[in-house]
Amino acid sequence: MVVASPTHQIHSEKLLAIELPTIDLSGERSAVSSLIVKACDEYGFFKVKNHGVPHDIIAKMEKEGFNFFAKPFEEKQKAELAKPFGYGCKNIGFKGDTGEVEYLLLNTNTLSVAERSKTISTDPANFSSAVSAYIEAVRELACELLDLLAEGLWVPDRSVFSRLIRDVDSDSIIRLNHYPPMPMLCQDKDSSPCNQNKVGFGEHSDPQILTILRSNDVGGLQISLNDGAWVPVTPDPATFCVNVGDLLQAMTNGRFVSVRHKALTNSYRSRMSMAYFAAPPPDARITVPPEMISPTKPALYKPFTWAEFKKAAFALRLGDSRLGLFRME
Ligand code: GA4
């Protein structure tokens, strides 16, 4: 059992530190799949190690990211946000949300990455090959995790979830978030910091199926547990942090919950995270495997397509909950 150990409490916000489950993917398959299901049941968030994504692929991607964010603002703006893809600074989505973050949002389609690279890098071929290699490796990891999930849930159609991601029309995206250092505004008398870390990316859940996140060694990610406590996630560049998205909540008939999370800036150091959001093709119908519906667990959500869900997500604010719109009456 994972035990929550209170470390510090800052002002009125309850802040606990727990270690999320770290799952070793090199373990025995059926044990690994049970651990993943358990982590999704208990937290909706977990870390994976021995994940099979080669270190040099991650390192190249990270280097390209840092090189890009180190450029002067005017240069970065050349990769202008052709909504929704490209470079964005502080503005999130279309409904007025903001945060202390700059980012690059890219479609995972190889041709589109190659085209976009021309405005992002002075060496577009290099940028595009780093991004494509990263996308391919992380997609493989996402599919493997989804297959393990199906196995752990005893769904006979083992590729029921991963098939959506492998589809050539999959709408998966990749996002590099850079949180520049933001000095804290105050320090209380016993010199423990006041809760002045700025919000880099506000509280939200991810709309897609699964998110695979990797960050440098600077913390900032916090997840919300169901009792309302915010839990900082210890950064670990050697692992990927995985979380359930809204669609996986719908596809498991509400068994797994897409957990709300946020990212705060650090006072002294830059945080950079790279998130792969695994999504189905726009016209894919989001349904629940029949084994997950029973007279005692009737269908919670109406069937809908990813395009319909995405439209609803973009019409709402970042922190709004969207699945409620698709609940059965
Ligand atoms: C959250 C997850 C991904 O970063 C993202 C975000 C998207 C955006 O930044 O454009 C959204 C946000 C995210 C959820 C609700 C909508 C859409 C901003 C926003 C207000 C790229 C995504 O797919 O959904």
From TrEMBL:
GO terms for molecular function: gibberellin 2-beta-dioxygenase activity; metal ion binding. Residues 169-280 form the Fe2OG dioxygenase domain. It catalyses: gibberellin A1 + 2-oxoglutarate + O2 = gibberellin A8 + succinate + CO2. Its EC number is 1.14.11.13. Pfam families: 2OG-FeII_Oxy (PF03171), DIOX_N (PF14226). Gene3D superfamilies: B-lactam Antibiotic, Isopenicillin N Synthase, Chain (2.60.120.330). Keywords: Dioxygenase, Iron, Metal-binding, Oxidoreductase. InterPro entries: DIOX_N, IPNS-like_FE2OG_OXY, IPNS-like_sf, Iron_ascorbate_oxido_reductase, Oxoglu/Fe-dep_dioxygenase_dom. Belongs to the iron/ascorbate-dependent oxidoreductase family. GA2OX subfamily. This is gibberellin 2beta-dioxygenase. It comes from Salix viminalis (Common osier).
